[in-house]
Each structure stands twice: as C-alpha cells, then as structure tokens.
Amino acid sequence: MTKEVKVEYSTQVKSKKEKSEKWIRLTSNRLLVTGSIILLFVLLIGIFAPILAPYDVLEMNPQNRFVPPSVDHLFGTDNFGRDIFSRVMHGVRLSLVIGFFVTLFSTIIGLIVGLLAAYNKILDHILMRICDGLFAFPSILLAIAITAALGPKTINVVIALVLVFIPSVARIVRSQALVVKEKTFIESLRAQGANPFRILFLHIAPNVMSPLIVQVTYIFAVTILTEASLSFLGAGVPAPEPSLGNLLYDGKLSIYVAWWMTVFPGIFIVLIILGLNLFGDGLRDFLDPKAKQLKKRGIIWKRKNNRY
Amino acid sequence: MEKEKQPLLKINNLKTTFSTYKGELSAVDGVSLELNEGEILGIVGESGCGKSVTAESILQLLDENTTTYDGEIIFNGKNLLKSSNRELEEIRGNEISMIFQDPMSSLNPVITIGKQIAESVRIHQKLSKKESMKKAVELLRLTGIPSPEQRVKEYPHEISGGMRQRVMIAMALSCQPKLLIADEPTTALDVTIQEQILKLMLQFQKELNMGIVLITHDFGVVANYCTKVAVMYLGQVIEETDVKSLFSRPLHPYTVGLINSVPQLDGDRSKELATIKGVVPSLTQIPKGCRFAPRCPLATEKCLEEMPNLESAKENHQVRCWHYEKVLEGELQYVN
Fold first, then answer.
1. Within-domain flag for A215
2. SS3 state at A223
3. What is the model's pTM?
4. B80 and chain A in contact, CB less than 8 A
5. What is the ipTM of this complex?
6. Do A11 and B108 touch (CB under 8 A)?
C-alpha cells in the first residue's frame, strides 16, 4: 500500500513541474508573444470595427475631399470625401473575415483530401495529380482566373482562394499521415477491429495537427496578401466595399495628392501579415520537439544570468 | 460417428507470401497449428522465423497490397481467410485480440489512455461515452494499475512501459475475446515487470477460458506458462509438442541448440555458452533441402538435397528432421 502512495506522489510532482515549464516556454517565446499581441490588436479592430468607425464607410462628402489626417478624420479622407479611418477599420474586418473562411475551408477540405490520399493508393494518384495541376499555376494567376470565371463577388473570391490553398494543406497532411500510418498503434487499432475511417479521422488526423496548425497560420497570412493583391488588381472584392486591397487601389490613383490614402491601409496589411508570420514562426518553434531542447537550455542560461 | 470437439483455432497449411521487388518471398510456408479453448500455445524461434507473420496472418493485419495468404485459418468453424473485411472487423478485437511487442509505440501518443480503452470498447459495443469511460476505469483497475481514475486522463508518454502494456492488455480484453494473440508481449520490459504482465495474462486466461497464442523467444516463459509449443524455423514449424515432452527430450537439432544456448544459473562458468553457428538465412536464399541443414551439426547429403516432412516421432510429438532418431539416441549433447 505504501508503495502505491509513493508512486502517485512522485508523478504529481512531475506533472506540476511540467506545466510550469510549458508556461515558461510559452511566454519566453518572443516571436509567439509579439505575434499574439499584434494579432490580438488587429483582431479586436476587426471585431469592433462597426463601433470604432466614426463615419459610414460609404458616406460621400464632396466638400471634404482629400482632407489630410486631422482630429475629425484621423487618417484623412479620400477622393470622394469618405473617412479613411472608418474604411480601414472595415477593411481590416473584411480581410480578416475572408482570411478566416478561406483558411477554415481550405484546411478542412485539404485535411480530408490529404488523409484520403494517404489511405488509398489509387485515390492518392488521382488527388495528388489534381493538386499538382493546381500547384503548377502561380496562386495569384489561378485566383484571378477563377474569379474572372465566377464573376466579381466577395463569395467568389473566397471560393477562388479556397481552391488555391487546398493543395498545400493536402500535401502536408498526406506526407505526415503516410508516416503516422506505419506506426504500430495503427496496426494495433486494426487488430481491435477499427474500420479505416475511424483510424483516419479519429487517430491519424490528431497526429498531423501540429505541422498543420503552423501551416494554417501561414495560409491565413498569404490569403490576406493574395486577397489584397486581387482587389488591387480589380479582380477581388467589388468596388465600393472597403477591403484593404481596394483602399490601396483607390489610393494609387491619387498617391501624389493624398499619401494617407495608401499609407494607412498599407500599414494595416503589414501589421496583419507580420503578426501572423511571427505567430506562425513562434508556434513552429513551440511545437517542434527539437527546437524545444535548444530553447529550454537557452532560457535556463538567460534566467540565471538575469537573476544572479 | 461421434462429433469431435472442434478446436478453437485450426491453421491448415498457411502460406503467407510478400511480393517485393526481389520477387515473391514466403515468410510463412505451410504452417499448421491447432489450439483448443483454455490452452496456451507458445511459438518460439529466432528473429526472422515467421513467428510474428504467422500471428499477424491470423488477423490478416499485413499490408493488403503486397501480401497473399493461402491455406486455411479456421476460428470457431469459420475460415478467416475467406471472410470479408467487414466480418474481419467484427472478429478483430471482439473475438480475437492481439497484444504487440512494443508498448511504447502501440498506443496513440495524442489521445489519453482512458479514451483509447473506451474506444476499444465502443468499437464493438453500443455504449455511451460515459459508460465506456466507466468501463475503461474498471478494466484498468482489473489490470492492477493503482488509482485508475487519475490514470485514464493521462497520455501514453506519462506512464511507464509496464503500465502501457497493462493498458494494452486492458484494451485487448475489453470485449472478452476467445483468443488472445500475444506477440512477444514482454520482450521490451524488464524481468520483474515481465513476470507481472505474464501472470496478469494468465489470470485473465483462466477467468475467461481463453486460448492464447504466445510468441516469444524466451524458453523460460514457454516452460512456465505454455501448454503446447511449436518451434519455428524459416517459416516452417519444425517441432511441435506439449511442453513436458519438449523439455524432457527435444528431437530437432535446432530445438536442442536453442535450449542449450540458454544460460544456466548453476551451469559450469568456465565453459563457453553453447551457440548455434551461423545466422538465419534471408528469405531470398532458402536452402533446397532441410532449411536448417547448413547450420545443423548432424546434416548429411540427404539433408541438403531433400526436405523432410513434419512427422510424428512419438505420440503428440511431431518433428521435421531426417535424423531425429539420432538425436533420440543421444548423439547430440543436451544440457538440461
């Protein structure tokens, strides 16, 4: 009896220690922390855009054309006298919404495609050749082609971008799933009578998550960039609606008259991309067990130096 | 005529062939085995003798694309080799369970052990999540893990190898199977834990009156736990008998060599440990005659030319050797 108590006690100590170690690793990961703070800032803007925006985004005011940044108009006004601050807030919101849905759907579909490809050899050939085909086009060209075919609507931009990003998710999932598939625990599951779908979606899927999550943050970033480029080229979100790309497009025409029309949307694009990339890099370091060892040693060393 | 009692598992002339780029390799070549309820059959042999492949063939777990099976595997009067995938899924884990060698890698690393045990229950029984979780705790308690309520929330990397093997046993026995296949269940564990795990299996075996196919290369385990033994060499059964006759008088030179090479605690320490010279040949170069002939101390011309059949030397004692009489007469030194 005494032996049992002892065993329990020692494992409890271990788990407590592990938790605090994890927390230290999380908070000492500068990339992750900086990325999270930027993302949180942008996300709050996106969520509260309707409250933050002092003017209606479409309200034109011909008397107030090209007003430079002032107290009334923080970021100035554009060629129609619309408030740029309001338009940028809403632009961030729209870009984030598009980014979110594109990432969500391309991840879900890519996950399913990748898992099926890893499971069945014939399916693998078919699905991966389709993916190769999609890969062969530069992503922006493909997106332009699809939106051109479907017509200029926000939903079509989402569909186009989902199609563009499915292959990159599917590839990562497939390669990871092929590794996991050969592990003994999969054979053990088969020996328990689990059918292929249970094995694929309940056991292999959770095992491919950590590389996938990292990839997803990058896809989010690239989606926002691609959407901005599409809108800038006039193939994205249709005109009066403020997306960050549209704002840049409007600003381009009068860049020598009103620098604020391009600078402020540009700053927010940079912020979102920077935040997402830092977050992704930080997450990769955090999830990678090899980087973990190095980081841990570094932290111990630094802490000692700081304290004593 | 009186109806004979059917054996639980009957393997008839099983041939398992892998197609590789080197050609067709038959890892198991004409194995026939029989197991009744409540019996423990030990399969022994060096690495690469086809023990594990035989076990995996029973449940057909090998890669479907590259493996072909031939022969008959009759479980409870049903030929498993002729069953559909759906039928096999019904049998796997429910009537026949399997425990693997490496407890480190046979659990899913990202799912808690409780959920994994509960799942093994839910695959075959319609239970709610809560009920199956309760059952998981119960099963863990039966396997002797202290404070199972806490353990079910832990991940595989948080528990020791011995405990992981207990979890595997809990999963394997969750549906009270009639047959348990244990593929070197204790090889990766240290000796004290080995004993505990084997005793645990034996305890469940008695309670459920299961048949067990125990694959091992440890003759100590065979002597202590098995009722029957089959010795395998290069995909063939070369000697098959009950435990007592095997240890009192092994008839195949290979078996003699294997038993002789087990170190004895009270043996002469100045003497070098007996070994079998050479290694198991690769499946690409199978000898023409008796497969053991190139390594056999008693080999003659005939051995190199002609393959012996598995024949009854004594009652319940079958051996595949041209010269087993010589062994019987004591031409080979047998230490035990």
1. yes
2. helix
3. 0.80
4. no
5. 0.83
6. no
